């Protein structure tokens, strides 16, 4: 089995795609007017409009309802990303060290999902990501 992507359902798809293009620096691939993907070297973030939910099962997913998942992007320099994004995003917290050895800053996407930008810093954290 291979983990392929994480998909977010959006009430304002264009706004969400623009946000993730800004954060990742990657241009989205629009596969349909109601579906886009941001492909990174290690994972894909899929974004679907609320209309796509009916293709699976009506009511099975809901835009702007997440309070459990955190979308994480590993970056080279958390401080540089914090400065680059500045006041163009809503920050949850600025750069800080976490107990498991990562430096992290968190922000919210336009529909409320937390997005973490992190970099492994300690020797143990660097070792965890060396083989990934």
Explain what the structure shows.
- The protein is globular.
- 24% of the residues lie in helices and 36% in strands.
- By secondary structure, it is α/β, with parallel strands linked by helices.
- It has 4 helices and 8 strands; from the N terminus they run βαβββαβαβββα.
- It has helices at 13-24, 53-56, 78-85, 123-130; strands spanning 5-10, 29-32, 35-39, 44-49, 70-74, 90-97, 102-108, 114-120.
- Strands 1-4-3-2 form a 4-stranded mixed sheet, with helices on one face. A 4-stranded mixed sheet has the order 5-8-7-6.
- The mean pLDDT is 95.
**Which regions have little confidence, pLDDT < 50, spanning 5+ residues?**
none
Report the helical percentage: 10-25%
CATH architecture tag of the largest domain: Roll
Question: What is the spatial order of strands in the main beta sheet?
Answer: 1-4-3-2
**What overall geometry do the principal axes of the alpha carbons give?**
globular
Beta strand %: 35-45%
The CATH class assignment of the largest domain is Alpha Beta
CATH topology of the largest domain: 2,3-Dihydroxybiphenyl 1,2-Dioxygenase, domain 1
* End-to-end separation: 16 Å
């Amino acid at each position: 089995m291979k983990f392929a992507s994480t998909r977010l359902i959006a009430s304002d798809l264009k706004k969400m795609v623009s946000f993730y293009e800004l954060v990742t620096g990657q241009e989205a691939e629009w596969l349909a007017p109601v579906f886009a993907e941001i492909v990174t070297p290690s994972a894909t973030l899929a974004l679907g409009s609320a209309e796509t939910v009916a293709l699976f099962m009506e009511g099975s997913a809901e835009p702007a309802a997440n309070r459990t998942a955190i979308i994480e992007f590993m970056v080279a320099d958390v401080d540089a990303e914090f400065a680059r994004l500045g006041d163009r995003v809503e920050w949850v917290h600025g750069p800080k060290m976490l107990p498991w050895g990562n430096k992290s800053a968190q922000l919210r996407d336009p529909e409320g999902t937390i997005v973490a930008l992190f970099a492994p810093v300690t020797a143990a954290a660097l070792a965890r990501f060396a083989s990934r």
